[in-house]
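INTERNAL AUDIT FORM
Audit reference: QA-55
Scope: verify that the stored structure record matches its stored sequence.
Auditor: D.O.
Record contents follow.
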Amino acid sequence: MFAENMYQRTMRNILTILFLLLMVACSPSSKEGKKSVKGKSQSAPYELLVVADKEWLKGSAGQVLLDVVEGPIEGLPQYEAQFRCTKINRVGFNRRFKVYRNIVIADVGKKYKEAEMGIAIDEYCKPQVIIYLSAPDDKSFISLIEERRDQLLDILNQQEFTRERNLLKKKYSGAVERQAQKQFGVRIFVPQDIDDVKAGKDFFWASSIKQEFKLNICMYSLPLRPLSLDEFVAARDSVMKRNIPGGKEGQWMETDSRTVSSHQGVMPDGQTPVGQVRGLWDMRHDAMGGPFVAYLLEDAKNNRLLVAEGFVFAPDEKKRPLIRELEAALQTITIDR
């Protein structure tokens, strides 16, 4: 969609998902005879428990791991970490900590023949994901993290996105769901507070006006054709100029083209390719702005490129939980076939 290697990237994402499913099948929680624990996980969203020797975490190998899980989220106006980490020694990993939803357990020692990453699902509570990282020495551990960095983050983030999607499917904005169905023939579940809908030609914008426009969703269509990232940004700016004006003449939403990046992903069904664009928006000739994330879906039946976006306006708040809640909402889109 944005580059010549879209097919290759899509296949790589699909293979990654298959790889993760295989790891789940081989994880300790799936072994025959393992007793299933039904307790509910208790940790906060995007909270991660790191189980490892605390002194080791201060060294080069431990720091490489922390740089990944505490690294900055892409596409935000200021630094916000991927996860808020709690760090404990292995001997302290007791019942109190086994209720965390996201856990990484790291261990380095000669008892391991090679560096490995494993995963267990719902081992102590539900929902829960535990990632096991082991290596015979620091050098091979660092190589493991460098090689599996994206997979590590994907596993943890997908756990949180799944939680968000499940919540949205139980409690969502009926106004937006009806408008998406009426105007584009798609279903989408967005936060219930997003209930003020403004429709235009091949476009609608929905906001949480009771929260001073903090959360926003918009949906529009473009002609179905290959697009470079620059071409998409130009098309997006044209759509926003027509449909999201500012409070004064000469003001409208536009893209900060210096901040945008694109990725090719796969929807939660593991099959549908989706283009993803992230970056910052601002209001021309005004101080307003914030992060946005756009999902681009090819709808060959209707000869169109369907674009759904979530964008945040929250000047004095952390953006991570808001933009990720909106991205989870974008992941609920289903097109009538």
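Auditor finding: record pair retrieved intact. The longest helix spans residues 138-170.
Action required: none
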